[in-house]
Amino acid sequence: MDALRQEEIDLGFVRMPVTDPRLECLPVLHERLVAAVGPRSAWRRRAGLGSLSEQPFVVCARAISASYYDHVVALCRAAGFTPRIVAETNERFSLLQLVRAGVGAALVPSAAASMRVPGVGFKDVRRAQAAWDIALAWRSQTDRGPLVAEFVRIAGQVYERRSALGRASGRGSSRPD
User: Which of 16, 28, 70, 123 could form a disulfide with 35 if both were Cys (CB 3.0 to 4.6 A apart)?
Assistant: First the structure.
């Protein structure tokens, strides 16, 4: 967001909602956090995320994504506990390797399941707070130029096509196990 405001970049992918009136946004992805757990996890389907309340957690560092980090903490609090964070990493694949090694559980975007890390299971936390939208954002007061305008146009078409396919198949975004 700061890079957009300071004109360091012309476009950015941001977490919704965006309240800055200087920015325009186009939704491009609907995603949700799921629990990534190792083979000896305390996960219990009936208790959902609350079943991990005594487990250590691994997260992507707040310095990498404050919105993700804050979302993880808020989701755990909504489930009735504060996560005991024992490790932070700078990228998702390393995070999943820590889960695989038994260091702790994690909350990750459902798309992380496509990495297919052996020994890591993905569980739906079944909470409305787990969902969020990603948007393409740009400064509204700036002449976008042909390259930026075309990128925005194509991103909009791809989002609409994916949304239509999801509605036709009865699914939204990809779902975890």
Answer: 123
- Reported as half-sphere exposure (CB side, CA atoms, 13 A), residue 49 has a value of 26
Q: In a 3-state reduction of DSSP, which class is residue 100?
A: helix
Q: Are 144 and 19 in contact (CB under 8 A)?
A: no
Q: 175 lies in a domain?
A: no
What does the pLDDT look like over 37-64, one tens digit per residue? 998 888 999 999 999 999 999 999 999 8
- pLDDT-above-70 percentage for the chain: 92
In 10 A of CB 89, how many CB atoms? 18
Residue with tokens 């990534």: 36
Q: Domain of 155?
A: 2-29+134-169
CATH of the domain at 7: 3.40.190.10
Q: Are 13 and 49 found together in one domain? A: no
